[in-house]
Amino acid sequence: MSSGDVIFKAVSPQFTVPDLVQTANYYRDVLGFQISSFWDGERAVTNPSRPVYFAILCRDRVQVFFNQADGPGEPRAGSKGYDAYFHVTGVDMLGEDLRRRGAHILEEPEDRLYGQRELVVRDRNGLTLAFAESR
After folding, report:
1. Residue-wise DSSP of 97-126
2. How far apart are CA 1 and CA 46, in angstroms?
3. DSSP per position, 46-82
């Protein structure tokens, strides 16, 4: 493998839930995870005092991402999040490769304020997949 190869390093499942804060507290209190951060749309917050739409929870080397559902009974992330978050190296090369293969690219590789460069793709089942490289 050359230094320019795309390498998949990990994947973080991303679940959409009806009550983000209660879910995060359950994972912390019952399942032993730590709440890494909540996001309110502008920044990471530790104690949400206004509505939050996203949370990251960690235990050991595992991360689980959660999205606030758009409405009651909403089973998927809608416009606010991803269904899976792949940690990779070579995200720009991956974007070129997926484009050549005919992938439905929603967002070309772009630097995010939280230190990741993300490529967002929709699969044939409508799942939204993010491929991210640390910056």
Report:
1. HHHHTT-EEEEEEEE-TTSEEEEEEE-TTS
2. 40
3. SS-SS---EEEEEETTEEEEEEE-SSTT--S-TTS--
Q: Determine the Cα–Cα distance for residues 24 and 54; give it in Å rounded to an integer.
A: 10
Q: Is residue 97 part of a domain?
A: yes
Asked, for residue 2, whether it belongs to a domain, the answer is no
pTM of structure: 0.69
Tokens 């090369």 correspond to 93
Residue span of the structural domain in which 25 resides: 7-134
Cα separation of 58 and 28, whole Å? Answer: 9
Q: Per residue in 97-123, pLDDT tens? A: 999 999 999 999 999 998 999 999 988
Q: Which residue has the tokens 């983000």?
A: 20
Q: Is the dihedral of CA 64, 68, 74, 78 positive or negative?
A: negative
What residue has token string 């070129």?
A: 96
What's the number of domains the chain is made of?
Answer: 1
